[in-house]
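We store chain and fold; example below:
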Amino acid sequence: MRTLRLFLYGIPAALLVLLATAFVNATFLSVSKKNEMSIGTLGEPSTLNPIQQADSASTQVGSLIFNGLIKYNQNLEIVGDLATKWELSQETTFRFATEEEAIRATAILNANRFGQVGSVTVVESSKGTITGITNTGPLLLVTLGQPGLNESDKVAATLKDSGLHPLPFPPLEPGGKERVFKAEPIIRFSLRDGVRWHDGVPFTSADVAFTCRAIMNEKVASPRRADFELVDSIGTPDPMTVVVRYKKPFSPALLSWMGAILPDHILGKLDPAKWPEAYNRKPVGTGPFRFGEWKTNEFIRLKKNPDYFLGSPWLDSIVFRVLPDPLTLQLAFQTRQVDFWNVDPWAVKGLQGDPRFDLFSSPGNAYNYIGWNLRRPMFQDLKVRQALAQAVNVPQMIRYILYGHGVQSTGIFTPQMWFFDPSLKPLPYDPQAAAKLLDEAGWKPGPDGIRVKDGKRFSFTLLANNGNEVRRDIATLVQDDLKQIGIEVKVEIYEWAVLLKRFVNKGEFDAIVLGWGLGYDFDQYSIWHSSQTHPEELNFVGFSDPKVDRLLTDLRQEYARPEIIRIAGQLQSSIYEQQPYLFLFVPEGTEVMWKGAYRLRHPGPDGTWADEPVHMTKAGWSYDMEWFYRPEYPPGPKR
């Protein structure tokens, strides 16, 4: 333990040299900031094309360049962005053996809408959900004001109770449930008028339709593809209207349109193979900041968009500086070369109460993990994965790496999510139980202490990215813990861009230390469904389980909150039991800035503007970053 403490806390003499070197490096960051925000990042973005982004560094920059149709406000309520309003409905089709049956069904449902007609009894459970009824021959089309299978089931029950029996439709996917209706949700978006791309071209519904097609284009290899696979058609009846029809109920449908929209006039006729050179490093968006300059491994600079549809930002520019390691980032903050610091856990206590700083702390909506490549034979045995989970001392990691600022993870959701299952308990640290499981799986200690099965040593390479000290420490502790039970771990560290391109995106690794930063949605189809295991997709560990596939599909079709909680709980426990990842911990996040370095003047209700200190909101302290300003450059009274 003393050795561990020295490794994590001690400052050997050699580190003094590193400190000096880092300080020299930090001095080269010095710039005349003027009215510019400077943000330090340890990972260089892989691309600035938002539909191809899968890393947080890229997303952070892209969020200031692009807009979606909708977004969360600071209270995590859905509000318009490029769209001003939207309407959800559902067209449910029933088919009968004869036209006469369809006509009778129409009369029954109309009675249900408007009251009792003759001997027909109103079924209260579905009254009020039907907004339109038409029939053509043996087909009956029922328009509902609320999408979801439950609403269509209520209509089907009304027909059944009236002695009518619609013919079944074949399931949309193999093994799916046969139903007596076809339910097709529809979202109708009204777009914001007067929005222009950064090159001055007007934004229209054609851009929205193009973005959807691009995401579904196999040449693009978008990680957002799973969110749009159920889109049946996308209509553009006029430049300011988009109508999206889905093949079946898909509860995350609306949230999927928070993703950024791309310009059709630039990319529509351009082969995706040419995007990396022509667009991905010099994008054109609609957001508050325009792309300015990208110097590889140095910085990306964005310039304010004076034509932004909500008004020009107060800052002239924002620069994202790519730094080599956390120590350089810390020194850059301390010497005011960057304006914010994502505080290392060991430093939080020393900053608390310091009058020079503003600290923003919140429970993390992210978790760290070790992903096992399930294509490798040694990780395909569940007993082995359970043994690995019990052999690693996660509570010790939380104590010595996070300084207690975190909780142990119990799977794919984090504790602050409303659908998280708190009854699920983490696997205990138990090396003896782990050794027993490995014995049962046929892995026996060899002459050198390393376990062997069928002549193959239990030895693998664990990857992590350079510049992330937490992940480096995780890798080192895992290496030490697994050695105690006879497993050899070789640790290799790579630059972030290399790690993604060479290993993660191709699935060419044994095991890897990574983390997921999550949104506020329960849909994790793209991460865990067995259909999402191809190169560039997010299920890069190759996890496949029929029960999990079914739960993921069921969850996507559910709109009722109690059912979402129930299915999400089953999904969380099912994946945790399978241990495709070694789920480690959910860290607490703390950001710091120099006190009063920025204020916030943002649009309020009824066209007013609110001027206030930067503060924590439900969506985070940096939610309105496009409206930050430096007090030495005060904004005018009205924008």
About this structure: The radius of gyration is 27 Å. Confidence is low (pLDDT under 50) at residues 1-31, 115-128. The CA atoms of residues 187 and 204 lie 17 Å apart. The first helix runs from residue 2 to 9.
